[in-house]
Amino acid sequence: MLFLTLVIYLKCFIRVIGGHLLIYLVYFLIFRMPTELFISGKSWMLSLAELTSYFKAREIGFEVQFFSGEFFTLSFERDFDASAIADLGGTIKIGEVKAKFPTETVKEAFLKKNKQAQQQIIESLGSSGLVDGIAKSSEKVLFGVSVYCTENTLRPLSGGIQRFVGSAVKNELADLGKKSNFMGFGKDRRQAQLSHVEVLKKSLVENKAEVLFCIGRTETWAAITVAVHNPFEFQKRDIYKPNQRKIFGMPPRLARIMVNLSACTSGKVLLDPFCGVGTILQEALLEKAMVVGMDVNPWCAKAASENLEWLVREYGLEGADFRVLQGDVDKLVEKIGQEALDCIVCEPDLGPALRQVPTGPYAEKIIQKLEPLYFGFIEKAYATLKPGGHLVLVTPYIKTRSGQAVTMPIDERLGQLGLKRVHAFSKDMFSLSAGGLERLINTSSLVEMDERHIIGREIHVVEK
Ligand SMILES: C[S@@+](CC[C@H](N)C(=O)[O-])C[C@H]1O[C@@H](n2cnc3c(N)ncnc32)[C@H](O)[C@@H]1O
After folding, report:
1. Which residue of 254, 274, 292 sits with most ligand 1 atoms within 8 Å of its CB, as the best mutation to test the pocket?
2. Is residue 248 part of a domain?
3. pTM for this one?
4. Are residues 204 and 328 in the same domain?
5. What is the pLDDT of residues 281-297, one digit of tens each?
6. Do 209 and 304 belong to one domain?
7. Which H/E stretch holds residue 298?
8. Looking at ligand 1, which residue's alpha carbon is closest to its atom 13?
9. Distance of CA 295 from the midpoint of ligand 1 (Å)
């Protein structure tokens, strides 16, 4: 009898503990998976592709919960280190999500001016711990609010939303006995957002004092900025390196995005066979890759080498491994060897600088003239890449008077060699709730085009 009672007690005990364990597990899996918010650079698809490649290359498990032209939310299998922003060319800010509510509530609050919905938002922000970090600062604190809005109907109201969130934060801080100043900005500003420079200059990351209020189609997130892009670092590598070339230069931010798209990580061998003054090589060296450059122009080979020496000194890159050769890409296999490279990242000649938008036939002519260089190079790239290695290649994307862009048809050549396109986005990267996937999943190349420019860049990622 005693034995039976003990068994029943034991069973009850296991059931209770087991239940708790299950609840804990569900809580851990659903709620504890850290969710981070990423504010994208101006080419959002390129920014998202860079993020997914960067995490895949480092085997960091993630899922994209939401994406739009302004921001993305990603959840991670383990804690996320926001200092990764220094490795990224296409992310402006990273925020730690503190609260989430239905966008319907935001619409009620600001489109219909519903007091109850406004109160709900104030309460959600209050109970989220959003101001805990700001409140810890010792003196009277300066904080800011930036609103990122995917919803067209709410976008014109973002100034008012920014002031509303600002006063909610200020009141919450006052309740905690903390005096604060809310950072305003001129009414002429098109977006109710602080720039990365303002966030850096006012130390808002250190003080956990920038609130990101990000309105998606069905959900809205409130986050605290935990990392911000440092434009001065990228600028230093652009304009303070000893050798520069104005017309052919690539911005270091784009070079870093391309290096990340190539899945380059520490210890991999990366080549830029059209290295110019070495912008791509610099970014790859910062990723601790073993770097090889080549250029047909002897001045470029010397200039790139000097720039890399400067980078090593400037960033204290002990043990950095690099060499720059002078030579024509025709001789790539002889100079580098067969199957020697993990990654090739490059931008060959993009054609003549155009003063006016060309006609379609003229743009076709430019492309045809460049084809032998590109097609010949793709063959050499195939021979020098290791199996599984990646090629990230820029081809010209020429605007024309008809509005139809003219591009380089490389698919046939890639197919003949057995080089496969790497699609930046696959279904398994996205949560079931992330809508609008169709246009991303079929993306085979990414375009970087400044509105002012006539020739843009089409960026292809392929694998051997
Ligand atoms: C668009 S620029 C690359 C710029 C480079 N990404 C940078 O940031 O400085 C193209 C480079 O390819 C080099 N180039 C052109 N034809 C070449 C060839 N056949 N073999 C090797 N290099 C070549 C040019 O000298 C030029 O420096």
Report:
1. 274
2. yes
3. 0.91
4. no
5. 999 999 999 999 999 99
6. no
7. helix 298-314
8. 274
9. 6
